[in-house]
Design goal:
By secondary structure, this protein is an alpha/beta fold. The protein has four domains: 6-206, P-loop containing nucleotide triphosphate hydrolases (Rossmann fold); 219-372, 3-Layer(aba) Sandwich (Rossmann fold), CATH 3.40.50; 378-428, no CATH class; 446-518, Alpha-Beta Plaits. 42% of the residues lie in helices and 16% in strands. The protein is built from 20 helices and 20 strands. The strands form four sheets. It has a seven-stranded parallel sheet with strand order 3-4-2-5-6-1-7, sandwiched between helices. A seven-stranded parallel sheet has the order 10-11-9-12-13-8-14, sandwiched between helices. A four-stranded antiparallel sheet has the order 16-17-15-20, covered by helices on one side. Helix 14 (323-330) links the parallel strand 12 (313-316) and strand 13. The longest helix has 22 residues, at 373-394. It is globular, with a radius of gyration of 27 Å.
Length: 526
């Protein structure tokens, strides 16, 4: 499986070019097994846990087999607005050179805007079942040319009560279509749905569930913007001073650029990726193992098989594309029952991926403030004090005593020590930080806690309508929604926060009084 490349799967050149741009070097297991089956036209049941790359698994099969001139050819159904947006974004990146029209359709967004968009040349619709069915009934989604239907996270759609909407949609589609069903689990209702609406020769691909626990590794993340990512990394390294760390980038180009930037700052670092010769990679790995390199910057594929003792830190300069890769990455530290440290640099656009990682790994990934220059100074001062103390205790300084004696005859001893420390800092702490505090990324939303959840019969649609109609705010002001058993979280645009709290607080939704407060980002979900 490790030897399979995307170029071995029968994909067209435009799609392979997009995959290269995205930095994907090798397919995940579900991608390697599902893509050839999808390209051949078979109906497919793909059973794999969240975070294994299912979107590219069905997306590549569809994009490979349609063209811009085909009209609306595929409908992809997802359980939530957030997942529909996520799938839409990834498909657009995959279809970059095919110039396909791809449109997300979901509740909470004005239907008139969607109707106007559907009049353009759209090839793929990605939507939630309720809103897609609404468009079908209005006649704004035409079904006569549909060749592909994807049910993504089918078990979640079942849990959210969409089974009737799914059947209504499927019954209206042309019988000569390809159906791709992806689900982490296969409850009886999903099995019956597959048997009823998929062809007899449908292929079933089940990827063995792997453990995604990372209990021995301390995990944290830093909020960064695109322009502050590199400086944030340098601050973290200067503060923590890891003795041996692997830093992961998503692309080969990213590795080269980061290594160049780090070397210009004086870090002892080299890179590894798939474009480098095997001999070069082996030499680099040898230096890293021997300790002559402090930092190794690598892509996921290049780092495969690296087993180096004493790696104290793994740093995700870029978050990976799937949860499985994240677990594999941070597993490079914390070996042999030792504790390890994993840091991730996360921009606002990557919060949804971070949330997915937290959910699947059940990991406690805490937010840490980016170190200030004063923090770094204090940290390095402690290191210098320890180094000097250790040297004195070891009595390993005799040959320097004449120089010290000569200096002490001319200057005060405290002044001499301060000057030597300054000299040490000038070499270790570069004068490249423009300010004490690094500018934080602007928060896109305010996260609200609401005291209603699944037990109250709440779903995303009812919650959006409650907020929209009660507070008189635009649906576009409402962001990600997480509905749990006893309560919910909703992301709201900052400019409507007070309006939503004041208008909705104390009112009843499904006969339950709603209390609202600004959520603590570190609050643990029960």
């Amino acid at each position: 499986m490790n030897e399979i490349k995307f170029s071995n799967l029968g994909l067209k050149e435009t799609l392979l070019k997009s995959i290269t741009d995205l930095g994907f070097e090798e397919p995940s297991q579900i991608q390697a097994e599902a893509i050839p089956v999808a390209i051949e036209g078979y109906d497919l049941i793909g059973q794999a846990q969240t975070g294994t790359g299912k979107t590219a698994a069905f997306g590549c099969g569809i994009i490979n087999n349609i063209s811009k001139k085909d009209g609306l050819s595929a409908i992809i159904l997802a359980p939530t607005r957030e997942l529909a947006i996520q799938v839409n974004d990834e498909l657009k990146r995959l279809a970059k050179y095919d110039e396909l029209g791809i449109l997300p359709i979901y509740g909470g967004d004005p239907i008139t805007n969607q109707i106007r968009a559907l009049k353009r040349n759209i090839n793929i619709v990605v939507g939630t079942p309720g809103r897609v069915l609404d468009h079908i009934k209005r006649g704004t989604i035409k079904l006569d040319k549909i060749k592909f239907l994807v049910l993504d996270e089918a078990d979640e759609m079942l849990n959210m009560g969409f089974i009737d909407d799914l059947e209504d949609i499927i019954k209206k589609l042309p019988s000569e279509r390809q159906t791709l069903l992806f689900s982490a689990t296969m409850p009886d209702q999903i099995k019956r749905l597959a048997k009823r609406y998929m062809k007899d020769d449908a292929k079933h691909i089940a990827i063995k569930k792997t453990s995604m626990t990372v209990s021995k590794i301390s995990q944290s993340f830093y909020e960064v913007s695109h322009k502050t990512r590199f400086e944030a990394l340098c601050r973290v390294l200067d503060f923590d001073t890891p003795s041996s760390a692997i830093i992961f980038c998503r692309t080969k180009k990213g590795v080269d650029e980061l290594v160049e930037g780090m070397q210009s700052r004086g870090y002892i670092v080299e890179g590894m990726h798939g474009d480098m010769s095997q001999a070069h990679r082996l030499r680099t790995l040898k230096k890293f193992k021997e300790g002559s390199l402090n930092f190794l910057v690598a892509t996921d594929v290049a780092a495969r098989g690296i087993d180096v003792e004493g790696i104290t830190h793994v740093i995700n300069y870029d978050l990976p594309q799937d949860v499985e890769s994240y677990v594999h990455r941070i597993g490079r530290t914390g070996r042999a029952n030792r504790e390890g440290t994993a840091y991730s640099l996360v921009s606002p656009k990557e919060y949804s991926m971070l949330k997915q990682i937290k959910t699947v790994t059940k990991g406690d990934i805490t937010r840490r403030p980016i170190p200030t220059v004063n923090d770094i100074f204090a940290s390095k001062s402690k290191t210098i004090l320890k180094d000097v103390s250790d040297t004195i205790n070891d009595s390993d300084y005799d040959k320097f005593l004449p120089v010290a004696q000569e200096l002490s005859e001319k200057f005060d001893s405290v002044e001499i020590i301060a000057a030597l420390i300054k000299s040490k800092f000038n070499s270790d702490l570069m004068d490249t930080y423009s300010s004490d505090v690094l500018e934080a990324p602007k928060s896109e939303d305010v996260r609200l806690f609401l005291s209603v959840g699944r037990r109250d019969g709440i779903n995303p649609k009812s919650l959006v309508n409650f907020i929209k109609d009660t507070a008189r705010v635009k649906p576009s002001s409402i962001g990600d929604i997480d509905i749990l058993e006893n309560f919910s979280f909703v992301n709201i645009a900052p400019d409507v926060k007070d309006k939503v709290i004041n208008k909705c607080m104390g009112l009843k939704l499904n006969k339950r009084k709603v209390n609202i407060e600004v959520a603590n980002r570190n609050k643990k979900r029960r």
